[in-house]
């Protein structure tokens, strides 16, 4: 898939989301009180006045919407009005009349929608979530997270939830009324279900596209893949875009550390484990010890917390002082100096996949050094067992003078044997 096709498809998804709201938005606010300010606001709102651009006036529409909101009491109605205000400053402004997009104002109005109605469902709450993700200033990871938050929310919506959590168009009718706009019609339900199905896919696609624009795109793709169920059809979208943006070696490493768990589950149970969300892959850079110490920074990485801990910059690495620090803190497992160092009696094991190019062990007084095989071809995987008897699969995909990049995940106990070779390095060392 070419980048131009990616851009076209992304535009189509965003455009379809907005387009799908245009017609319903014309009926998305009912002036059930015949309030004069709401009547005036709708006359000046191009989305609600039959797209009469000559009469439309954002300033006047805003004035009357805000005047109406001062006395409005129904939260569902206020949410619908705030969504209209957001649209006027995000997408439905008229440059020919000097109107411009106002990102911050649009965001503030869309945020009001979700503050008022965080659980109920209809196009205003869907559009607000989508537009808040699109309008995120930071871009990058923040936008990816916003997209995937929308994915998770949409994925939890079914027909029953639409019926019970519908965002009303009006209060329950009085006895003499015949139409009930406090509940969704069959047409409402069908349209929403169809929209949500497409929006689930577009949320993942847009999150993937945002990942492509990041300095480290694999970080964004990792976040997405950790959220998607192993059998989610949207994984195909992510894989396609990963091939375009993530380096070949990083892609191989990421696929191994992600897919190996899925393959194991499918082989052993022929179904996806319900606890798949507990398996989280992370990406990390550990600085070379010499670089970190020259900058007076920490260099020992703690696998459980995912953080580098502080250590004295002048103490001997394989010395008593540093050993006492990591032992007292009960943190700090590995470091990097061109080889892997382990602390607190942590151990590295060659995984079955690397049995033809095993790690080479050298025991120190307080640390253990593991040399990677000569003429190393990346990616390279290993298993690290920490003092707390927890196991982490690590796959190195990039080695630089400044340090090392890798993906890692904690293994479930039943997975460990799948990765280990028959004989550990420690056992080999004792035999010699």
Overview of this protein structure:
- By secondary structure, this protein is α+β, with helices and mostly antiparallel strands.
- It has three domains: 3-214, no CATH class; 227-278, no CATH class; 281-431, no CATH class.
- The protein contains 16 helices and eleven strands.
- The strands form three sheets. Strands 1-11-10-9-6 form a five-stranded antiparallel beta sheet.
Relevant terms:
alpha+beta; 4-stranded antiparallel beta sheet; 5-stranded antiparallel beta sheet; 3 domains; 432 residues
Compose a concise summary of this entry:
The chain contains 16 helices and eleven strands.
Q: What structural class should be given to the helix and strand makeup?
A: alpha+beta
Mean pLDDT: 82
Across the major sheet, the strand order is: 1-11-10-9-6
Distance from N terminus to C terminus (CA atoms, Å) equals 54 Å
* Binned strand content: 5-15%
- Please give the share of residues in helix: 40-55%
Main sheet characteristics: 5 strands, antiparallel
Give the total of domains.
3
| Element order: H for helix, E for strand | HHHHHHHHHHHHEHEEHEEEEEEEEHH
Uncertain ranges: 1-27, 261-278, 427-432
Query: What is the overall silhouette?
Result: elongated
Fold blueprint:
Blueprint: H1 3-25, H2 36-44, H3 58-71, H4 75-90, H5 103-116, H6 123-134, H7 140-155, H8 159-164, H9 186-212, H10 217-227, H11 235-245, H12 248-269, E1 281-287, H13 289-294, E2 300-302, E3 307-309, H14 320-329, E4 334-336, E5 340-342, E6 347-350, E7 360-363, E8 368-371, E9 380-385, E10 391-399, E11 403-410, H15 416-419, H16 425-431
Antiparallel strand pairs: 1-11, 2-3, 4-5, 5-8, 6-9, 7-8, 9-10, 10-11
Helix pairs in contact: 1-6, 1-9, 2-3, 3-4, 4-5, 4-6, 5-6, 6-7, 7-9, 7-10, 9-10, 9-11, 10-11
